[in-house]
Design brief:
Two copies of one chain form a homodimer. With about 220 residues, chain A is of the alpha+beta class. The first copy, chain A, is about 40% helix and about 20% strand. In chain A, a hairpin with a 2-residue loop joins strand 3 and strand 4. In chain A, about 35% of the residues are buried. At the A-B interface, helix 1, helix 2, helix 6 and helix 7 of A face helix 1, helix 2, helix 6 and helix 7 of B. The first copy, chain A, binds a DNA duplex (20 and 20 nucleotides) through helix 3 and helix 4.
DNA sequence: CCGGATCCTTATAGATACTG
DNA sequence: CAGTATCTATAAGGATCCGG
């Protein structure tokens, strides 16, 4: 393990940083939050990472048990990386980091974002507004060629995954990742995006409004 | 700003990592969680950090608004570093990292820990067990020469700071940071430490038991 | 085409010494 | 006390190449 550089402390925070605190490590993990990915998927999602660094991080993260490698069955050859159960428990860390970063007074937080990241923002910030009654619904969200399904059960975000809901959804949304990001960030109302022809809804628009209302990011600290 | 290396993404997680993801940055912030510290305090708390790196991190973290420098008033010359309000909002990040790291199946999590870190573990893991009725109490904890005060109000951890409670406490605990760590980690019961002469309690021992019971760390994932 | 490994360059961290 | 200067050791960045 060449990444043997350690903080050498008994503190659990320092220990976590020993495991996932190196450059790129958490972003690699982030890319696996919605499921297994192959090496080339990761390269595409993180265009700025050097292949040597990606290889090294994958080895390190596998060695400490955050992710595992899995060979695909013959029909679809290749190998993928996926989070272990313990790796998936980094979710609260992502939540906390994203909430803090979203409140950053430093910069307008611009730059490119993947479709996965936009959808994950929904998971990160999902917190049903108080005083609203819980609802349940299944959503299909189509961002360009990417498809996602969302399940809300009794006001809680029950699942969020790539792919369409095999059993059909109550609401189908068709838009781009940019518009969807703007809608979730409350930079544009759903109705406005629909009126502008940038977003199509099939099913009850009220259910979509509820979803968007529940996913509002926190205000900036600046 | 020489630390201009950025992930260049619009994702709030990547943005957070741009701000506090560099080596040592979060550990420097951790050392300020209980209040202002001078440069030499930080060096003592983080013996492995090079002075050049410490200087650089302090500059970077000040530049982005996580901490500020403050000159002390004439009687006690010198300068200190302290978290800004926004920097203090990293608390949930520490909480999540500490909880995840505490469940690490990788290593027994050994090494040296500062008194501050042990006390912060209490804040990190404080979560009153369900079914217990809320209580209120003020504690003074003396670990060697370090003194801390803890306030629990109606079952919630209302404050945790360096120094003694100027108005007196309901319970005074006198021990070492090692024993206190073991007691909080439930590696040793309070009564056992008292019987072994490693821990002294003034006041109601039941109040101390409640505090310790509320601060249990999560079990390992291994 | 996928999944990396190699090679070389540049940036950052580590270690030690020293100064306003 | 609060850092800076200097030097070395690692790790990251970037381009290219290779085997299955």
């Amino acid at each position: 393990m060449p990444g043997k550089r350690s903080y050498g402390e008994g503190c659990p925070i320092a220990h976590s940083l020993d495991l996932v605190g190196e450059r790129w490590a958490l972003l690699v993990v982030r890319e696996l939050r919605l499921g297994a990915r192959r090496y080339s998927d990761l390269q595409e999602a993180l265009p700025a990472i050097a292949p040597t660094v990606l290889s090294q991080r994958l080895k390190d993260l596998e060695a400490v048990g955050v992710l595992r490698r899995r060979e695909l069955e013959p029909p679809a050859a290749g190998r993928v990386y996926e989070l272990t159960e313990w790796g998936a428990e980094l979710e609260p860390v992502f939540r906390a980091l994203a909430r803090w970063g979203a409140r950053s007074p430093v910069v307008p937080l611009s730059g490119q974002v993947s479709a996965d990241s936009v959808m994950l923002g929904l998971r990160t910030f999902f917190a049903p507004p108080e005083g609203h009654e819980p609802w349940s619904a299944r959503y299909d969200v189509l961002l360009g060629r990417e498809r996602y399904r969302i399940g809300v059960e009794r006001g809680r975000l029950a699942h969020l995954a790539r792919g369409r809901d095999p059993e059909g959804a109550d609401v189908v949304v068709r838009t781009t990742k940019e518009t969807w990001r703007r809608v979730l960030a409350r930079e544009e109302p759903v109705a406005g995006a629909v009126a502008a022809g940038r977003l199509e809804v099939e099913g009850d628009p009220g259910l979509l409004e509820r979803l968007v209302a529940a996913a509002a990011p926190p205000p900036s600290a600046g």
